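Chapter review. Work through the record for Non-lysosomal glucosylceramidase before attempting the end-of-chapter questions.
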Amino acid sequence: MSVSKLDKLVPTKYGWCVRFDKEFDPTWKPFTRPRLRQSLEYIPLFMRYLRVWWRLRKAKRRVHMDFLNPVPLQQIYGAPLGGLGCGTIGRGFRGEFCRYQLVPGLYEFQTVETNTFTVCIRRRHTTTYCQVLTPYRLRKKGLRSWNGAFPKENGQYQALYPQSWTTYDLPGQNVRLLCKQLSPFIPHNYKDSSLPVGSFLWYIENLNNEPVEVSLMFTWQAGSASHEFSCRDVSHECIEVSDDGISARGVSIRQTLRGMKLEYCIMGKKELDNTITMRTNFNVNSNTSGRDVWLDLVNDGRLTEPAATSAANSHTASCVCITTTVEPNSIKTSEFALAWHMPLINFGLAAKTYRRWYTKHFDQETLTGSTLCMYTIKNRTQWEEDIAKWQQPILDDPALPDWYKSALFNESYFVADGGTIWVDVSDDTTLSDHVRKWGRYGYLEGHEYRMMNTYDVHFYASFALVQLWPQLELSIQYDFASSIMYEKRECRTYLFHGRSAHWKTLHTVPHDLGDPDEEPWISINAYISHDTAHWKDLGLKYLLQIYRDFVYTQDKQFLDTVWPTVKFVTDRVRQQDTDGDGLIDNGGFADQTYDAWPATGASAYCGNLNVAALRACIEMARLMDDRNALQDYDTWLKLAKTSYSNKLWNGKYYNYDSSASRHHDCIMSDQLAGFWYLRLSGHKYDDFEKDRIDSVLNTIFNMNVMAFGDGKLGAVNGMTSTGQLEIASMQSEEIWTGVTYGLSSTMIMENMISQGFLTSEGVYNTCYNVAGLAFQTPEALMQDGHFRSCGYMRPLAIWAIQKAIELSRTESTANSNS
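Structure tokens for Non-lysosomal glucosylceramidase:
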């Protein structure tokens, strides 16, 4: 047998590499309940929550945070398919098609076993091997006669999002397959990155001394991943398209899903020496129908369209098969494209219909799934080059650890697969010019926490968006700026305290821009646990993000537009300083992003944000030449800095809060959140002393990272001053993955490079290699093997690490030249 050359076609050694037979730690489970001592205060909240949960269940709607039914852990995921805001289809690292998000913002976590690839090998006009390329036995009635259970030890997977490579060693055949999957996730590209498509380029290597005929069949079922959403008007048809000298054949499956028209399209690229055959509309629940397809393929490695078929429904599927002859000791390719075309969407309450962003780049009257597939086939090579141009400088950097190169790109999946929605609103004259030009963009707080653009979490995650698609980051900011001037005086009951209060208070920053199962952008503030008008971090985070986004984009028009809202927000912040010491005061309840961890009076977290936000306001006032505001903010900052130091500094770090509680001196890992933002916006030590920053970071590293988990889990949110796990709150004993990434970037900026990478490596290794949480990084990990809220927004803060690397090198170069 010849030596295989197939592995050399994978262009990089970096990424997440795993064999099909990988077994993860089975003890990891979703978090379900806090400690008994923590539970008592939640009993009234839980009873109020049950009433809301039951009311929505009776209405056949999902609660936006389902604490009773957390998503079960599936240790299966690989790099997902699709661009930004167009719906996504997940892939498992063993080849599954799973975790569909086609209905806007709503996930279905089932695997569709019909959707799969099959290989058929023929020698001398005889079929010698036919195998579904999945390691599972197929359970559907119509697929039981298909040969499943591909041997797990013969499959290998590598993911470097938005690409992945899956290798199959076909047992006893001297044939190897490599499937390269690609999605058009291309930073600063606002057209192709929005497409609902995926590319599958198959390399077929024949290591025999005789030719082999290889057929690859791609099967796809109508409907979606579950039966939750109504599916009707299903039809299948064969299609053939030619454009600019490229021809393709395939199938189109049209249906209406939850009242929205959806077309799946699979196409195979026609070459001079291949044959493409199709078979449409077979019933996956019928023994006879499914067996006929299998025998048709086995018979001659091709498919035959039957003369007549039964009525189509969501249980019917179609196949496309590419057949080619591979000469001895050579490699050939077969190429498929997949599209899911849902141009018009609405949300749960169907108050308004939106057109997805990608549609504006095509003739909307003639745009079909085949148009998108042909576009994919024609542009795949360019996409590969664009992705390489983006990734290669980082991959080639010898100073960066291998795990980080994998983590940085693979964690980026959430920008597309975060329940993302991107719509064209160019005809809405009530919106800002920027939003009309670049569209409205939203993503979920998490796959399980269904709130769009949750602002206190976006504060961390936005480092990805502002560096990769800055116009979308500004679009989100314009939407929040508009929301500050909006109020909704309708009252509702909030769950934590059971009190009734306004839905949205004037001049406050909302928690989120709505639930996609209701009506986002119209009905904002879906979060009902707390009245976030009284939260202490949202306004401060707004001020810091506005400043950071201006620094990164240098868009003066943006700053000119939002400047009035900066003044409204600072006025609101001033009202929340109850003792006049210049610092915002926490109210004795969980009034910030740590929404189950109360703070009282001045606090390390909000105090640090407060000082940093005032510095940001001073810089913005200077840019706006607003001298009155500049003087006001400068006076305020001096007072705030004095109070921050006097009330919280203990000689080593900042106390958790200024209360007399026995937890007041807890070591919080996120206590430098404001400094982090300023530092990554080009500031140094205007307002925070260098020696104190170093002391805080060293204390956190020694206590929250090393003493807690020996550096293998990331940074725990809270440790006691005596070096014990802080269990005052369930959140104090969690490791927040995104906070750990942000902390690491701060360490790197302060020349604690090895400590910074070690801190984050624990999170990455736990999620990807131990717990089986790849491509579903949760909000929180716990030392006892629990996690909370898989598929979460905050881990996108890993892009702050990359910013810190670049900025620290720039500073180092400037210092050496001075």
